[in-house]
Amino acid sequence: MVSPIGAAYVDSLFGLEPPTRGPLGDEEYVTLCSEAISAGTDTSATTVEWAMLHLVMNQEIQEKLYQEIIDCVGKDGEIKEEDAEKMPYLEAIVKETFRRHPPGHFLLSHAATKDTELAGYTIPAGVYVEIYTAWITEDPDIWSDPSEFRPERFLHGDGVGVDVTGTRAVKMLPFGAGRRICPAWNLGILHINLLIAKMVQAFKWLPVPDAPPDPVETYAFTVVMKNPLKAVILPRVQIP
Ligand code: HEM
């Protein structure tokens, strides 16, 4: 899809004139655009791949999601943004994916601008603070059976009421929290929801015979599958 003239992200930068200085320069346009691309593509793609791994390995979860999709839009209906918002099981699957596989195990480096007290620690001005997000979601004092992939926990379990932005309580931090939270967290979730819903509406995803998906992780820009996901995909129209 092509944006109408004037509606692209880069167009919104052309009109910017921060109060203390003039318009942005060419290098800043390039940096801001490449930052949005690099921060937004790997993170979302990794999340979709991990979610699909669990849907391939757990056919029951996939069928439950498929039922939710066809109850909402039918077998051939187009899934739009407002439909994805009416699918609580899809939301639970995506949240459980962020909990079990936060795309970045660390947030970006943060530094205190002045001497600060944080959770009983003194952070001197200028010192970097690194936040290991996976530690929070692996903690058995916060999550029951943390290594288990169980979307239902967000419908009636220890995930009820937990949000991904850490505003109510910090039980997961896939996008960070507070002032420097990912500025596109809701766009990222929307893309992931729509992609997964469309992929499951159109195809049934099955393990490759004798070669089930391998959930081993490795560190790249995000935490990815060491052996990329392979699956057999059957068009749903061919399934009686
Ligand atoms: C699954 C999707 C995504 C995840 C998990 C994610 C995660 C994150 C995290 C953890 C941070 C650092 C927050 C911190 O250090 O406190 C961040 C920052 C950022 N993200 Fe995302 N992100 C996602 C999608 C996107 C998308 C779609 C875009 C742009 C279109 C984007 C643009 C950015 C930018 C520009 C920053 C830096 C913000 C700053 O410097 O204050 N992200 N993201």
Automatic annotation (TrEMBL):
Membrane topology: Single-pass membrane protein
PROSITE patterns: CYTOCHROME_P450
Superkingdom per UniProt: Eukaryota
One GO molecular-function entry: heme binding
GO CC annotations, alphabetized: membrane
Alphabetic keyword roster: Heme, Iron, Membrane, Metal-binding, Monooxygenase, Oxidoreductase, Transmembrane, Transmembrane helix
Keyword flag Oxidoreductase: yes
Keyword Glycoprotein among record annotations: no
Amino-acid positions noted as binding heme in the UniProt annotation, renumbered to this chain: C182
Names of required cofactors: heme
Location of the protein in the cell: Membrane
Family: Belongs to the cytochrome P450 family.
PANTHER family given in the database record: CYTOCHROME P450 LIKE PROTEIN (PTHR24298:SF54), FLAVONOID 3'-MONOOXYGENASE-RELATED (PTHR24298)
Name of the protein: Cytochrome P450
Organism name: Gossypium barbadense (Sea Island cotton)
